[in-house]
Design brief:
single chain, 148 residues, mainly alpha, Methane Monooxygenase Hydroxylase, Chain G, domain 1, rod-shaped
Amino acid sequence: MKDALVATLIEEYSTVEAFASILTLETKALTTVSPMEQLPAIVEKKTELIGVLARLEAARDAQLTELGFPTGWSGMELAASTDARIATQWTLLQKAADRARRVNTNNGELIRVRMDYNQRALKALQVNVPRKTNLYGPDGRVPAYSGL
């Protein structure tokens, strides 16, 4: 049963690494002028990988239960303390997850900055300019002065 847990951890590690790679692509897309060309495919792949990670986490929890450990992080820590192979894979998985978390946090900040910029640009475009007689109207003509 420990072999199955090690195999799950290896697969989970590979999936987290793939997820981190997609996040790196997302970073590159978010720093381009027109990210919308690339983002839909990135979001689709991220969603797919999140589903795989959820399935693997559930499998890992089931394997921990079968081995007599609690589920989640505490169970993995206990299992890692009893087997060097589990400990090695668990450490690799945690490091990969930390890297992915950092890139994801950075992407969130890039999105926040872009949204802030867009909000300010919209406000600038929505300023109510007082109507002056020397401004052109929508028809391209200067309106007649009507006095005050």
